[in-house]
Write a structure and sequence with these properties.
123 residues; mainly alpha
Length: 123
């Protein structure tokens, strides 16, 4: 087993470090980064996407998802509706960010959405 940087044991798959570096280079492989914003075209899609990210319980993923949605409708438009500067929004809604609840609420409202807390189902 090979130990990953995060401390997780990975099976030895026979790849050398240079093989892994090549695979990690999207340009070398002709791959483009996936951009969820390109697929978030309807309020239903946006609501479903944000709900899934919120259910995941990862602050950084929620921030990133809000950023995806804001980019899909236009970051400048969201900035104007929230009263938050465009650059500040990009920073607050980047992958791994932990925006304040006030910021999240402003962005959600600007997107024409609302967050609701419901009782968790008994398992």
């Amino acid at each position: 087993m090979t130990e990953a940087k995060e401390g997780v044991d990975l099976p030895d798959c026979g790849l050398t470090e240079s093989d892994v570096a090549l695979l990690a280079d999207d340009e070398e492989l002709g791959l483009e980064d996936f951009d969820a914003a390109a697929y978030l075209k309807t309020p239903e899609h946006i609501a479903a996407y944000l709900t899934r990210m919120l259910e995941g319980g990862d602050d950084g993923m929620l921030a990133s998802a809000l950023g995806d949605v804001a980019r899909s409708v236009g970051m400048a438009k969201v900035a104007e509706k929230t009263g938050i500067g465009r650059e500040a929004l990009y920073k607050a809604l980047r992958d791994g960010a932990t925006p304040r609840l006030n910021t999240v609420n402003k962005v959600v409202k600007a997107l024409g959405m609302r967050m609701v807390i419901i009782e968790a189902s008994a398992s």
